[in-house]
Amino acid sequence: MVALEVKDLVVTYDTVAAVDGVSFVADSGEFVALLGPSGCGKTSTLRAIAGLEVPSSGRISVLGGTVFDDVNGINVPTERRDLSMVFQSYAIWPHMTVFENVVYGLQLRNYSKAEARIRVEEALELVGLSEFVDRPAPQLSGGQQQRVALARSFVFEPKLLLFDEPLSNLDAKLRNQMRNELKQLQERLGITSIYVTHDQEEALSMADRVIVMNNGHVEQGGDPLSIYYEPATPFVADFIGSSNIVHGERVDEPIGPGLVAVRLDNGGIVVCDARDVASNRLAVAFKSVHLKLTKNVLPDAVNAWEVRVTRRSFAGDFVEYQLDWNGQPLLCRGLPDELVEEGQAIFCSVAPEHAVLMQGSGTSTTGGLAR
Amino acid sequence: MTTIPAPGRWLVFLRGRVSTRGVILSVVACVVTLLVLYPLVWLVIGSFLTQRAVTGSGANAFQGYIALLGEMELVFNSAVVGVGATLLAVVLGVSLAWITTRTDILWRGALDKLVLVPFFITPLLGAVGWAMLASPGRGGILNNMIASAFGLDEGPLNIYTPWGIIFVTGIYYVPFTYLFVAGALRSMDPALEEGSNILGGGNLKTAFKITFPLIKPAIVGSSLLVFVLSIGQFGVPAVLGMPHGYLVLTTRIYQHVAGFLPNYGAAAAMGLSLFLVTIVGVYLQFKVLGNTSYVTVTGRGFRSKLLDVRGWKWPLFILGFGYVAAVVVLPMGAIVFSSLLKFVTSDPSTAVYTLENFRYVLFDLSTTKVSIRNTIGLALGGATLALAICGSVAWIVHRTKLRGRKVLEYIAMVPIAIPGIVFSLGLLWAWIRVSYVPMYGTIWIVLIAYITVFLPYGIRAIGANLVQIDPSLEECASVCGAKWSRVLRTVTLPLLKPGLWAGWTLLFISMIKELSASALLVNSKTMVLSVQVFDLWLGSSFTRVAALSLIQTALIFVLLLMVRRIGGVKGMEL
Q1: Which region holds residue A90: left if phi is over 0, alpha if psi is between -120 and 50, else beta?
Q2: For chain B, which terminus, N or C, has the lower number of CB atoms within 10 Å?
Q3: Cα separation of B161 and B158, whole Å?
Q4: pLDDT band at B136, cuts 50/70/90?
Q5: pLDDT at residue B41 above 60?
């Protein structure tokens, strides 16, 4: 069953469209992550779903009921959408105790005092804050405030839970811990959740489905594995993981069943799994972890290129090599067990299934940031 | 990103929320617009009406402007007083701010608090006090002491001069420049100055190459504000200049309205001209300072390294506490002394002391009871009503996306550019001929004047607090299912409470001190304390003025203490 449907959503600030025609659906109980760089429109989309921004056009429906539709002039105010949200700043009311914060939504739904108390206690137990019930909110640590915000958001069983980068203010260690707890909690409660983040690890590890956004539109939506292994656009390939994107023209002679060869601008040939791409100008993306460095050409290697190591940087869990392949720079991440020296000539290979063919333009890029 | 037009957005918004909220907000917007613009429109019309036009038949529509052209020296005098007072306030304010934030002189913390005391003393009182200290010849206490000490026939000081007016006006506006500049100095990252030190810049070089350029906006902005306030000032030139024939625009407006031969047209023409100058000043100040609050200076985040000023320690100490003496201790001392005198004298050793003056002004003078009652009533009612309006405007500006909210903010900020006496003149024009709404001569017209004149201060004070409150606190409440009225009641107002108290107190004290708007509006039934002090001064009863001034000051401090007790506000943010 479809729990949330967003159709052709446009949100404009002044005359700039922050969200420019976004459509997606979330099934009941699904955990959907909106992932993208800052300014991509993910938070505006979330706030439009909550009714905190008024879209200029589009339609939003929650559990089949339309909450916004510019054509029919429907705009249900936030407080009557029966959804809930965890804010980036937690938005814990500092003039209330933990109990008063969590019970707020229940009071508005006419629960009896006794039942509200029981529900608040249950919610606090779920987030591990039972003993903090009567603690004034300002006396909580960041992590505890986060948990109170969480308890407050699901205690009244909303139709939809919205998360606006809830973990971005926590330190790395706590963030990892909260990520697991939050995911477990969401599975247990089964509330449909929309989770906004710029952190790909968060999105890939927690979500059932990831929607990658860029410049106000959806680049690609799918389960985490397909987003990682089969990026649909150079942007997604570049944004997720550390990737090499090279450009060239299609080689017309057949290479083998299900394979396509691309001649790069430096003359080199990259063989990749065939995909239905119309244009002649092509791009091929491969993750830097999928590049293998070997002293000799492996016997069954399809893509094996002779490269030179121009720079090596040791990053602990992995080693990053900058390679030069006839003038085409490449980035390779290897394990730190077998180090290759700078300046050394070596063979580099990538499996055709890891070389993703897509429509190309412009020039080649490597690496992106080590995210 | 592509740009697209957004038709229908407003319609959708409306269709979603036609509500009591919309109605209340529209009413507030209309009230503010009416309060501010209606008198201004009448000021413009009034400047083209002649004396006769008030009663019916017309004459030369430009007679007011012709009268103004005949008295161009007034414009010059106002400019001299404005520029002089501004220079003094800036030099003193910047020096004091630098002393309290960057040097290690003795009692720096106390000085920081004492510099703000003039906020609670009216410039009128300062003028009265300094008149008692520095009347020419041997009349002033200070003059007399200097003359005796140096064996002179006459003391060297004469406060009844342009210099005297500049001096008193300037020192009473120091807190404005001080607050802005000290705020800027405190919120400056010390690394900026330390960086200069590390690259080899000495303390002096750092101060002139790094510190002062960085606080320049604060200096320029606050000097524009002080200039606007001091050319619109009425009390000081009225006490020190008017009785001796040295007039500025504000005092001449007063004479044109309250004098023997009233010329309302000339007064309006002068008022309008003055307003045109001040509105330009305020516009420039907006440009330079943006929307910083006049009263709440936040950002005490950094702790700067304090300079060891060595040999300058004592000169700077004397400058700092000399200022406090000049602005508080000396004039208040002179007023206390004079209030206890049986006969006027400037020599404490030969004086005859009595409490007769207090008995007289409190019990024999029937006006005093009326004016105390009116002053407190007006301040209580005025501050409360103004707070409601200011709170609504601040909320509209900072928390809604209503169209025209910027325009509303600008309109509500206009009174900061209207000198009180000019505004009350507009009010007189606006209501004097409206016989079916009996406003003229009532306490209500004074109330309207107080509320309007202090709108900008209240809006800034509350606005500064409102922007400190994270909007997501309120958004979260509506996501939880609360209607706007409930969000306001359970989240916004409780969080805003300290800010509202501070704003109310500021408005309350400002209204008790108010002189220039009241001067033209009150009569014997609607008398307020500051105008009564001023009238007594014009009637030249030195000792009784002193007694009444003290009663007014005591009232301010007692009420302030009560307010703080009730509000539970510990250190009131000014």
Answers
A1: left
A2: N
A3: 7
A4: confident
A5: yes
Chain B residue with CA closest to A217: the answer is B1
Q: Give residues 137 to 176 of A whose Cβ lies within 8 Å of B.
A: 152, 156, 162
Question: Residue A22 belongs to what H/E stretch?
Answer: strand A16-27
Residues of A in contact with B11 (CB under 8 A): 73
A chain contacts of residue B473, beta-carbon cutoff 8 Å: 91, 93
pLDDT along chain A (371 residues), means of 10: 93 90 94 94 95 93 93 90 92 93 93 94 92 91 91 93 90 87 91 94 94 94 93 91 89 83 88 83 91 82 88 90 92 87 90 88 48 30
Backbone φ and ψ of B290, nearest 5°:
65, -145
Query: Within 10 A of A365 (CB to CB), how many other CB atoms are there?
Result: 18
Instruction: Output DSSP code: residue B117.
Output: G
What ipTM was assigned to the predicted interfaces of this complex? 0.83
Which residues from B are below 8 Å from A84, CB to CB? 479-480
Residue tagged 């409660």 (tokens): A189
Tens digit of pLDDT for each residue in B326-364? 998 999 999 998 888 887 777 777 778 888 888 888 888
For residue A157, the chain B residues in CB contact (below 8 A) are none
- Side chain identity at residue A279, one-letter code: S
| Sheet with A292-294, edge to edge strand ranges | A292-294, A345-350, A303-314, A319-325, A328-334
Confidence band for B305, pLDDT divided at 50, 70 and 90: low
3-state secondary structure (DSSP) of residue B96: helix
Report if pTM > 0.95.
no
Tokens of B94: 């910047």
- Please tell me which of the candidates B2, B4, B470 has its beta carbon nearest to residue A91: B470
Assess A357–B contact: CB distance below 8 Å, yes or no: no
Task: Give the distance, in angstroms, between the CA of residue A258 and the centroid of all CA atoms in the same chain.
Answer: 30
Contact B170, B118 (CB under 8 A): no
List the structure tokens of A118.
Answer: 């029981």
C-alpha span between A11 and A69 (Å, rounded)? 13
Give the Cα separation of B336 and A264 in Å (integer): 94
A104 inside 8 A of chain B by CB: yes
Distance between CA A206 and CA A195 in Å, rounded?
Answer: 9
CB B223 within 8 A of CB B288: no
CA distance B323 to B196: 31
Rounded to whole angstroms, the Cα distance separating A69 from A57 reads 7
Q: Which residues of B touch A (CB under 8 A)?
A: 1-9, 11-13, 15-17, 401, 470, 472-473, 475-483, 486, 490-491, 494-495
Residues A195/A163, Cβ–Cβ less than 8 Å: yes
Residue of A10, A12, A79 lying closest to B483 (CB–CB): A79
Identify the pLDDT of residue B86: 95
Closest CA to B6 of A159, A58, A190: A58
Contact A87 B3 (CB under 8 A): no
Q: How big is chain B by its Cα radius of gyration, in Å?
A: 25
The answer to whether B544 and B533 have CB atoms below 8 angstroms apart is no
- The answer to whether A342 and A324 are in contact (CB under 8 A) is no
Note whether B135 and B116 are within 8 A (CB): no
At residue B291, the pLDDT reads 53
Please, which pLDDT band fits residue B2 given cuts at 50, 70 and 90?
A: very low
The answer to whether B59 and B51 are in contact (CB under 8 A) is: yes
Dist. CA B539–CA B458, nearest whole Å: 35
Among A17, A73, A85, the residue with its CB nearest the CB of B3 is A17
User: Which of B472, B479, B495 to substitute to test the interface with A, most A CBs within 10 Å?
Assistant: B479
